[in-house]
Every structure is written in structure tokens, then in C-alpha cells.
Amino acid sequence: MVHSSVLGFPRIGANREIKKVVEAYWAGKVSAEEVTKTAAEVRMSNWTELKQRGVTYLPVGDFSLYDHVLDHSAAFNAIPKRYQGQGLNALDTYFAMARGHQANGVDVPAGEMKKWFDSNYHFLVPELDETTDFKLNYNKALEEYNEVKALDKDSRPVVLGPITFLALAKATKEAREGFQPISLLPKLLPVYKQLLSELKAGGASWVQLDEPILVTDLGASFESQFVSAYQELVPVSPNIMLATYYGRLESNVNFLNKLPVAGVHIDLDRAPQQLDSAIAALSSTQIGLSLGVVSGRSIWKTDFQAALKLVEKATSALGPERVVVSTSTTLLHIPVTLANENKLTEEQKDWFSFALEKASEVATIAAAASGSQDAKVSAALEANRTSIAKRREFEKNSDDSIRKRVASIRPEDYERKNPFSVRREAQKKLNLPKFPTTTIGSFPQTKEIRQARAKLGKNELSEVEYEEFIKKEIESAVRFQERIGLDLLVHGEPERNDMVQYFGERLNGFVFTQNAWVQSYGSRYVRPPIVVSDVSRKGPITVQWSRYAQSLTSKPMKGMLTGPVTILNWSFPRVDISRELQAQQLALALRDEVIDLEAAGIKAIQVDEPAIREGLPLRRADWDAYLGWAGNTFKLATAGVKNETQTHSHFCYSDFDDIFPQIQRLDADVISIEASKSDLKLIKTFKRYGYSNSIGPGVYDVHSPRVPPTEEIKERLKAMLEHLDQSLLFVNPDCGLKTRGWKETEASLVNLVNAARWARENY
Ligand code: GLN
Ligand code: ZN
To answer: Count of alpha carbons within 13 Å of 432, Cβ hemisphere only?
Structure first.
């Protein structure tokens, strides 16, 4: 009998219950008990659904109120000193690490957030040094394991593996020079041993240890640590399912059989070709193989026949008892259920499956692979065959004019007419002072804005009334910026529900969901649009708003677009044509928009590419191919303008060290980039590469409500100016301000403007 499992499940609740309760707690409106109660209800409802769908091993312990990596740091007592002794209880310390805390005399910034592998999920980077005093503060996996017992159902606790935890960590500021978090492995293992032995004593027969670091190039360097750590853990632990996902193991597959684990999970969605090498590596052992044949990253229905071929290959090599059918990754990256969608057509609904539907898929594939004669299983197989065939039929309807336009892109379409040194002179027309101040685009999306949008959706507000409302918002954003003295203005993006969805809705080729939320970080969820067919622009998208905003002021107004790579990476792409082709189609649509903005009198145009880094393949061998086409599509979108039009781009949450030449190649006149929490590493990188266009390294963190004092911003500018050419420096926050409130936004920006004025006087 082939069993089935799900590696992890969305923790946001089918109706965003966790966001609601956590935000209410932060606002002081509900108690900690209320949060705990809601969390338990969401977990129970997820497990009940998964059980009903026939999944053998339910995931437990993967739930989180904010981030699962942060949960491990908190549980392991890896709590940086700045959060200790502040008089905060455990829950508030946890949230302070996540988002900073500024109240009642306490003022601590949040920890650093980074993108989780190649996804749009962000984790809080553990901060460690020699003094980190690891101990097990609580055993979340065991607590959830005990909760699910009420359902009388097998579950498999999920724990982030020790090597990945340490590999993702960074050294604290106090750590000695050259300190490597992985050196703490001997100190950390006792905590894992305690955690795992408690699970075993509690009755768990399996535990899933997630080690996605194994699909990166870094994984190989940890071979000896993997072998020694797992040798220590296995004797005290329930059977270990070592889960690898998001990519291919490559040579790491060769040391898996040295690990005394009971099972290994591989991602066959991203890397179906690794099945053969995994079978070869494991066939002489007793290690079981979990096959990630149902994608945890895509919302397209699984092709059962294709999946079954892979499963049958494994069962005939290893025997059915050693094979588990599973999701390729945790389902964290996809929405909870299609059942919440009422606006998709029946045809569209039939193409997709979300987390709960994927759970049914693993159960069906496992049953079919076990030779089940159940009528329900054969009906599901038949229905799947029909759905897949219908989608294949639909895919034949391509848009010839778009395909032809892509095919006739010329090399010169990617390049500006002159180099930056020439453009820079032409851009003096913008009349920006030294150290120009600007923002990244969005201003607070207030309750009023969201309400107006909701009313428009329900026809309680007419198009005309809504437009008037947005115009007022823009006007007040413009007046605000003039009043506090910013130099390069933005219209504030009040009309945008989301920086990707907004564009998707105005392009052909996308479909939208109503409730298909996915966690991006903490209580911030996004609703990625789905690319279903060829993409083209229906007409101008942002021009009317930018033109209106510019008409209100004599200061220059920056147009604001989302870049092709980001639109693609933050959507669910098609899987029947390449991502490159989808990005090219998007780039051509945006190129037309950029040219229209220029014609409307907009002199600075920002094309955001915050997601360019996250789309970077996990294996270096694949980088050039990706960066080649991704960079080209950005260039294609932006290069059509005159010298005097200043192009901007913006990037956040990423290390750019290793891809810097590619950022340089984009040739944006100005880039703004998240930098406030990465010390001066980024600035030094700019210097090392001799970056020669303008840059605005963010001077404060926008992901926390904390207001940066002027002195702090001055200090940052001072430090930056030690390394950067002063004529190239822009002064701006780390990212857009849409998730902030007006109060802290105003206070922070006033301080920013003051710091820039100080710099003008002193440099
Ligand atoms: N222009 C966008 C904004 O300000 C950029 C957001 C982002 O980088 N994530 O909201
Ligand atoms: Zn950003």
C-alpha cells in the first residue's frame, strides 16, 4: 500500500482568520487567549479537512502566527539580547522579533527578513553568536501532535532541520569576526535531541525534518555535518523523513544513503529527472522515498497519468511499502481552497487545484498507485484525464500578434539611446537638489481607501464617485509631500489593490481569484493573479493617475509601474509555455505604458523589480540563463524612453552581492534598494563593482511601525557617504509605505527630509 502525505499546509485560515486575530491583538483589541484559541481552531479545521480527503500523514507543528523560522528561533531560545529584559512576555517578545516594538518606553527594531529560498515567503533570519544559549523553551511540534490526537489520525510532526536552520542564520553584530552559525551545531543538537525524544515519547512514529538547504549549492559543503548530526539524532528520534524541496539534490543525493534516516523526500515537480538518481542512491538501503509529485508551488491541476508514471517507477524499484506520494513542498505557497471561489468560470475552475484540492490529489494518486479498485478513485482518474485534455485544448488558442511581436524584438530594443553619463546631463531638467529625497511609491492604504474599493466592487460607489475619491487621495498625498519637503514626488498608489494584481487586471491573459490568499510575511498576505493565456495591454493603465498627479504640482512626479519579472514571479505563471516568453509578453505591454507615460509629461518613471532576486534559481548553474532573460525583459520595458526621462527601479529583501553585475546591466538611471538592515554590506558592494548610476539605499525599515530618529538616519547617510559618490545618492525609505499608518509615515519622512537637508549642508 502506497501512503500519502502533505509536507505542510497554509496557516492563514480559509478566511484569513489568523491575520484578523493577530492584527487585532497588535491593536490591543483582543487578548492573547483569543489568539491561541483562533489558532487552535484553524489548525483543527485544516486537519479535519485533510483527514476527510484521505491523506495518510497530516502535517503538524508547521503552523505559525508569523513565521516558522522565527518559531524555531524562539523555541530554541535564540533570542537576540536586544529583546531580552524589556519586560515583554513570551508572545510579545516573539512579535517584537518579528516586527519591532515601540511602546511604553521600549524601542527595539525588528529582525532581518529574507526571502525563503526562491519564493515570495519571507522568514526572519535567526541571529546567533557564541553566547547564544540554546535551550528548548517549548515543543511546538509535540503540542500540535497532541492536539491532532483528538481526530484519531496519524500525523507527522514537521520540524525545520538543524543544518538548514543554521545555514539560514546570520551572526549577530556582537559575534567575533568570521563567526559561522554552523559552528554552533554541537550546541544546538542537544535541543533537537530533546525535541525529537519528546516526540518519540509522546507516541509519534514519524517526524519530518525539513532540510531544503540540500537543494542549494551550499548543501554540499555541509555533508559532514549532515552525516554526524543525523547519526546523533536518529537513535532518539521517531522515524525521520528528511524532506528536501524546491529543487534538485544533484550530488547531495550521493550522501543521503549515508544518513541513517528512514525516508527521504524529493521534489519531483521542480526536478522530475532526479527520480532515477534518488532510486539508484537508495535502492540498496532500507530508506523510503517520498515523491513530491503534486506541486506545492503551482495552482495547476496535477496530471495524474504523468504523476503515476513516476510513482510506478519508484514502486517497482523499491516496493510500494517504501514509497509515499506527497506534495512537492509545503502547501504554504498556494491558497487554501478553490471552494472559496465563486467568480471563476467552471472552465477555469477545472484547470486549478489549491491546497485542499492538492491534498485530495495526493490521496487519489496514492490510492491509484496501490491498485485501488474503488469507484471513487477511478472516477477521479477519469475526471482528471478529461480536465487535463480540456486545458491542453485551450492552450492552443495563442495570440498570434503577440507571439509575432515577441519574435521580432531587436537587440537595440533593449538599450537606452545613450549611456548614463549623457542621460544624466539631460535629466538635470528635473531640477532635483543634491541628495534628492523620494519614496518608493505607495502611501498608507488606509481603511477609507480599502472601503472605497470594496464599495466600488459592490456597486455601492459608482466609477465616477470612486475616481473622485482616488483623485482626492492623490491630491492629499501630493500636498503632504510638498508640505514636508520631499523632492521627487509620487502619486501614492491609492488606486492599487496590489502592485501586481492591479496590473494583471488591466492586461489580457490573467484571471483573478476572490479569496486565494497566500502568506508573504507575517500578517501580510497576497492574492497572486493567474496567467492563463497570452498577455497583452488592453490600453493605458496608469497614465491618467500620473498625469493628474503631475498636474497638481510643479515638482516632478514619478510614474510607477511593476516590472515584468515581478509581475510574473508574483503571479502563478502558466506551465505550458516558458516563463521567459511570459515575461517578454509582459515587458512589451509595459514598454508601451512607459512610452505613454513619457508622452503624458512624466519625467521620471519607476519600474519596480523587487522580485527579481527571488526568481533566481537555487543552483548557480542556472543563474545566467535566468538573469539573462529576466534582465532583458526589464530593459525591454524601460529602454524605449528619451535621454531626459529618468528611469528608476526598486529592489527589496535580498542580497544583491552575488548578482550585482546583473543589476548594473539593467542600466536604470536610479535604483532604490532595501538596505537599512543589512549594515553597510550592500553599499560596499556598490563600491566594489564601481556602480556608476544613481542609487538610493533605503535609510529606514518600513516593515515595522517604528519611527527612525533623525540622528539615526544621519548616521546612516554618513556611513553611506564614506563609500559612495555623493552626487549619486538619493535618500529614500527601504520600500513602499502601503502597510504603514499615516502617523508613523509622516514622522519618519519628516526625519528623513531633515537628515537629507543636514547632508546638503554638510557635504
Ligand atoms: N512601488 C511599490 C510600493 O511602493 C513597491 C513595492 C515593493 O517593492 N514591494 O508599494
Ligand atoms: Zn520594496
So the answer is: 29
